[in-house]
Design a protein that fits this description.
The protein has about 160 residues and is an alpha/beta fold. Helices cover about 50% and strands about 20% of the residues. The chain has a five-stranded mixed sheet. The longest helix has 26 residues. The protein is globular.
């Protein structure tokens, strides 16, 4: 079983879980204890496989304070996931956002709106939070990338 978890490392991190390419669930964590507990529960359920935790990299987009929060959160997230044995990959915003086909000139608000629309389609239900939407899209992107790696390895 291939397990991929997408994460939006905002002030209230959101995680989305995919099993064998299928969206399963999404959760916004209230704090890092909540995130750690959620990751540990996922880990306990899937000790037979090697889950991949995909976290969005920090970017200096809106302001330096948010950038600082993202950097700190990414460090904490990497620590937590390494402690429970997950492989961690970093996904840039440009990588996963390119799959939404908004073009290179889309503004922040347009990207958030597109993220919600695409994530709602993936989840099969209306997603309200742009943080959860981003986590779903990050996870979906990482899952496709991991699936391609698996197919490539099988051919070799």
């Amino acid at each position: 079983m291939r397990i991929v978890i997408g994460c939006d490392p905002s002030a209230t991190p959101s995680i989305a879980v995919f099993y064998d390419g299928k969206y399963s669930s999404c959760k916004t964590c209230e704090n890092f204890d909540d995130l750690k507990q959620s990751v540990e529960i996922i880990f306990q359920k899937m000790f037979q496989s090697q889950p991949v935790f995909a976290v969005e990299t920090a970017y200096l987009g809106l302001n330096r304070r948010i950038y600082g929060i993202q950097c700190a959160n990414i460090g904490i997230i990497k620590y937590i996931t390494k402690q429970v044995g997950f492989a961690v990959i970093e996904v840039t915003p440009a990588e996963w956002q390119s799959t939404m086909h908004c073009g290179n000139t889309a503004k922040h608000k347009q990207l958030k709106e597109a993220s919600i629309i695409v994530a709602s389609s993936i989840a099969g239900t209306k997603i309200e939070s742009d943080h959860e939407a981003d986590a779903i899209n990050i996870g979906a992107f990482a899952d496709r990338r991991e699936n391609l790696k698996t197919k490539t390895k099988k051919k070799i």
